[in-house]
């Protein structure tokens, strides 16, 4: 019944759907691919398909896809996305890994059947929360292994879905397995009617990273406050916070790393009394350094004591805090963390990092970390513990595929 109704509605709104996609920047080719018309792909042997709806999901499963390529060299790897930006990042990061990068089909019986008949996947892994009635039903009908990996459900979504449990329970039973980021997410899926025999916690793929080799040297003779990946408008907030902290913590040094080096002159005009990393690289005789080199930020966290993660006091959505946490360094971010909301939820719950609403709260939290030795050591230990607890997700999924 769902299939019949969705097919009728799709055909009625087809012209409008086409117009909306064109206005959103989709090409005719992209729209055709969403209809399931994948013409250029020739399935051979086992086909493993990965789906990430957009940029965040593709970033989360990038390492997994590359590991699958190495583990199953004779298989075909297919990657699908739902958005233009997802396509762009998939082609950029996985263009040399995947045999096919295309769009996920519209969820109608005809589009899904056309797609599956052409691609012929044996296994499909859907990142985070992708519940499509027709797609799931067709996979079950054709005995295709269908999984949710890195699964999560926000509180708002869960409260909405819970009211429609009668609808979602049969949809969830189309999945061969549902593997979640956390026990909390696991319990949410179970509450919606997922099969307890095939619903398990796998942890979060985003934590399956290793710290970069620290093959650089930084001379210093005090503690370091690192402001990483700052955007316009944040530099003054961070510099003013540092000056205020310096009044109490005389040994404190400051490194500021603008996200884009095209903003270097803007940062210089705010900080004023500084040394450039490219010219000196010395914090033993200087208090302030601007990181103006490429490729060093990930390693610079090793020399920091606390780190602020930029893009979070404007509307950028934040940047990845795990680059600091993996070194055991406490992180503080502003309120705009949409790009890494799931990661911040985990590290906040673990006591490994903090999200503040105002510059005043930033100062208070940084001062607490610098003033209270036990608080700092506990936070630093929590950073390392949260990695230990969360890792293993990549191996979990690879073993499922094996």
Word description of this protein:
There is one protein chain. About 45% of the residues lie in helices and about 15% in strands. It has 17 helices and 16 strands. Strand 9, helix 10 and strand 10 form a beta-alpha-beta unit. The longest helix is centred in the N-terminal third of the chain and has 22 residues.
In short:
This protein has 17 helices and 16 strands.
The proportion of strand residues reads 15-25%
How many domain modules? 2
> What is CATH's topology name of the largest domain?
Rossmann fold
The major beta sheet can be summarized as: 7 strands, parallel
Specify the CATH class of the largest domain.
Answer: Alpha Beta
How helix-rich are the residues, as a percent range?
40-55%
SS content category: alpha/beta
Average residue pLDDT:
94
Major sheet strand order: 3-2-1-4-5-6-7
Shape: elongated
* Stretches with pLDDT under 50, minimum 5 residues: none
Cα-atom radius of gyration: 24 Å
The number of helices is 17
- The counted number of beta strands is 16
What is this structure's SSE topology?
Blueprint: H1 2-23, H2 28-34, E1 47-51, H3 55-71, E2 76-81, H4 84-94, E3 100-103, H5 109-119, E4 123-127, H6 133-141, E5 145-151, H7 155-162, H8 165-172, E6 177-180, H9 183-191, E7 199-201, E8 219-220, E9 224-230, H10 235-248, E10 253-258, H11 264-271, E11 275-276, E12 282-283, E13 288-290, H12 297-300, E14 306-309, H13 322-325, E15 331-333, H14 341-350, E16 353-355, H15 359-371, H16 373-390, H17 393-401
Parallel strand pairs: 1-2, 1-4, 2-3, 4-5, 5-6, 6-7, 8-12, 9-10, 9-14, 10-13, 11-13, 14-15, 15-16
């Amino acid at each position: 019944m769902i299939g019949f109704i969705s097919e009728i509605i799709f055909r009625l709104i087809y012209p409008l759907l086409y117009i909306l996609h064109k206005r959103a920047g989709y090409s005719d080719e992209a729209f055709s691919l969403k209809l399931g018309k994948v013409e250029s792909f020739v399935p051979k042997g086992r086909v493993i398909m990965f789906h990430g709806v957009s940029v965040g999901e593709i970033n989360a499963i990038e390492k997994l896809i590359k590991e699958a390529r190495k583990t199953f060299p004779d298989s075909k790897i297919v990657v699908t996305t739902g958005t233009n930006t997802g396509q762009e990042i998939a082609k950029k990061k996985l263009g040399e890994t995947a045999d096919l990068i295309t769009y996920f089909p519209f969820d109608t019986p005809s589009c899904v059947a056309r797609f599956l008949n052409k691609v012929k996947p044996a296994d499909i892994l859907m990142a985070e929360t992708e519940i499509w009635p027709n797609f799931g039903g067709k996979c079950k009908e054709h005995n295709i292994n269908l999984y949710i990996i890195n699964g999560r459900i926000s509180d708002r979504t869960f409260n909405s879905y819970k009211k429609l449990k009668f609808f979602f329970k049969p949809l969830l039973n189309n999945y061969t397995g549902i593997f979640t980021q956390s026990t909390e997410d696991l319990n949410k899926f179970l509450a919606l009617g997922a099969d307890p025999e095939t619903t398990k916690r796998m942890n979060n793929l985003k934590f399956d990273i290793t710290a970069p080799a620290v093959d650089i040297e930084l001379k210093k003779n005090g503690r370091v406050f690192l402001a990483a990946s700052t955007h316009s408008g944040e530099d003054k907030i961070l510099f003013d916070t540092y000056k205020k902290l310096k009044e109490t913590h005389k040994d404190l040094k400051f490194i500021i790393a603008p996200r884009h080096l095209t903003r270097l002159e803007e940062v210089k005009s705010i900080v004023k009394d500084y040394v450039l990393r490219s010219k000196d690289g010395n914090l033993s005789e200087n208090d302030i350094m601007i990181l103006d080199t490429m490729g060093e930020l990930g390693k610079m966290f090793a020399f920091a004591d606390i780190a602020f993660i930029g893009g979070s006091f404007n509307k950028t959505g934040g940047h990845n805090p795990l680059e600091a946490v993996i070194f055991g360094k406490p992180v503080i971010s502003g309120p705009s963390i949409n790009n890494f909301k799931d990661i911040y939820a985990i590290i906040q719950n673990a006591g490994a990092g903090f999200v503040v609403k105002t510059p005043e709260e930033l100062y208070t939290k940084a001062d607490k970390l610098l003033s209270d030795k036990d608080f700092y050591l506990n936070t630093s230990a929590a950073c390392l513990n949260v990695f230990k607890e969360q890792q293993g997700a990549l191996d979990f999924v690879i073993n499922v595929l094996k």
